[in-house]
Amino acid sequence: MTVDQREKILIQKAKSGDEKSFEALILSCQGRAYNIALRYLHNEEDAFDALQESFIKIFRHLHKFKEDSRFDTWVYRIVVNTCNDILRKNSNLKITDSIYKVDDDEKESVIEISDTSRSPEEVIVNKEKSDYILLCLDKLNNEQKEVILLRDIQGFSYEEISEILKCSIGTVKSRINRSRSRLREIYMEQN
Amino acid sequence: MKCNDIREMLSPYLDNMLEKNQMKNVEDHLDVCDSCKKEYTELINIVDLLGQIEEVPIPDTFELRLKRALTEERKEIDNLKSIAKKRTKWRMVSSIAAIFAVGVLSIGMYKDIFNVLPENDSGMEQAGLNAQMDMETYGIMGNENNALNYKKSLAAESNTINESSTEEITINSRISDNNMQEKTIVSESQALLFDSSKDSYNPEKNNDDTGIPNSFLDIEDFTSRQLTKSNVESVNKYQLQIPSQGIERNSAAIEYYNNLIEEKLVDFEYQIINCSYSPTGEWRFDIFIFNGKDGNTYNEEIIIIGRNGAIEVLYANEFMGL
Lengths: 191, 322
Fold this sequence. Notes:
The structure holds two protein chains of two kinds. Chain A is mainly alpha-helical.
């Protein structure tokens, strides 16, 4: 039995109310779904909420899922939309910490991220850079961040991204290009 | 090719998403253009860094939390389904009971006219128990004033009509399946029956002109009367018409408001869980919203009021866009 066939059987069972089948279905995509939410929303608790809300939506609307498309991209689409909803709801309350600070003489300079916990020999340079690139990523708008997250952090193909975001591959191409370009500018400004 | 054009193609080039000839163009350009080459190198660096961000394992507590949430969700769905089933069953049972009750009371009223109205040979017609008991008849009875006003004027003058908050409306099986709570009208339909003999009906003067003792219009009196006649028309004849005619407390009104609600909540996922009528002339619909038109999950109740042929959202989450 192929993976696809197995998935189809699980979907049919889950549609008829079998909770175990539903759990098995989402097990395969919950890790990735969690990381999408985490990178989107920046904290565990919000990511938890987004994931839980997404899976409840999936549970409730499973009967609407058309089996001619992929189940995991449908799941990730719901997760992305749920994260966007949460961001929209929180947008009035959200306080964004800028990576810039304003000095007394009103010149902007970057807040230094100092590493106080490890000796220089123990510093994992790449991890520092990764943390920093995440800070830069946060400077992008939601649309730009979304496509970088899906392509460069999660590794989805252009086709998968077009299914998740419900747009053409041409749109995916131009969004990825613009978003990376903008991210590069932000990153290079500081280096 | 120009640098601007090349820079637009650097990302798909990196991801191997260009046509072969386009790939060649970019390669050739990068061989000779240091500026574009520098930008491409920086792009690779950024993408590499992003690719090194580790996947965070999902905490164990999440699975437990999700299971609990799914169980709650399933219970809620089952609960709403069982409420729907119970209401459908109750509606059928009380439809039958109401039809019977109206029939019994109508016969009682008919007999009563014979006993009460002095020297009046047209008791049968006055009772309104003929086959023409439809909107026109009601129109004759109250073409300037609706039943509600009539009743209120009676209550104001006589204080005999019982305007309890639990007055009921008869709903026939024509109503669509939307979990409406049933109510049975007794007072109004019976009171209206008496005045069908009046050609120039004026409800304001009814207490003086009808000759019907005010006490006669007491609901309690109605319910106690014995039936002796069986020539009662089908209860369907007592169906009241569209609210534009002024008589709102009826099955058609519920259906009417239900249609308005369906239009209002066209992209929502919802269920009407309760419907009630207040003596002030308002229909109240308690509606459970599963999902909004934007696809968001709400799982919240809203209230929609139907009044004078229009609906108004009384309470709703501001994000629902209502």
